[in-house]
Amino acid sequence: MDDEMGLRPIGFLSTPWHSLKECPRNGRQPKPAPVCQATVRPEYRDGLLRVEGFSHLILLYWLGPVATPEMRFTPPFAAEPAGLFATRGPKRPNPIGLSVVAFDGFAAEGVLNVRYLDCLDGTVLLDIKPYLRSVDCEAEASMGWLANHATPRE
Amino acid sequence: MDDEMGLRPIGFLSTPWHSLKECPRNGRQPKPAPVCQATVRPEYRDGLLRVEGFSHLILLYWLGPVATPEMRFTPPFAAEPAGLFATRGPKRPNPIGLSVVAFDGFAAEGVLNVRYLDCLDGTVLLDIKPYLRSVDCEAEASMGWLANHATPRE
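^ inputs. structure came back:
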């Protein structure tokens, strides 16, 4: 089973950040959020048909490789450790990053302008999904131990 | 790069659906949504510390293997084809499924009760992330060509 679960890059992300130290804590922290690009490889561009009507997308990307996942850790802003699955930290058993981004249209064929990324320039893109408020939006969701650390919205 | 991007199961999902035909179109379609389980392997259970305060989680899981991704397809409810990246269909270059689920607490150690899954019983679990309304919620997002096909909320 494990051997079958290999991933293939479908493109890459262009962001202003070239080291982990520069990366913001999350994509909503920089105000205003810079416009970044998601470039889709030519062989996958057919998959972009009718993407243009969505104001927001979900991007999945590769954060790894991770030698040893850190199952508990203390984020810089916290006093006590939390389980990895109670955080969005990168050292995960499967280091797949997820961002809900605003989609600002195409910069060129196969190149999407997006806002609210927080990852390194050159990050490998794995998937683009349409954001569907009918199933993805939980405005009243409680944020557990992160409630006091939430990034304020604009 | 490709070779390094291997995934490891962190657990599995238990749902009422044993064939693709039985699976609902999305996790919000069954009303009421059945309570499903996400079982985390013992070696990853340390990562669940402080998950209990979150009302909602994001689950990533493996939909594959997919021999050939279908870059354009026509969903059952649609008249015309759409690009794969404008859909949540399963035949993706990287077949990673994503569901925002309600978290109803632990059924046993390492076993989470969740609602709003739509996948097959036994699906491989890849990641659990806390749902953060501060970065994941877009209540006004426009749904493009899927706007007229949205599943109504309860």
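The two ends of chain B are 44 Å apart (CA to CA). The beta strands of chain B are 11-14, 35-40, 56-62, 72-73, 82-83, 96-108, 111-115, 124-130.
thumbs up if we can close this ticket
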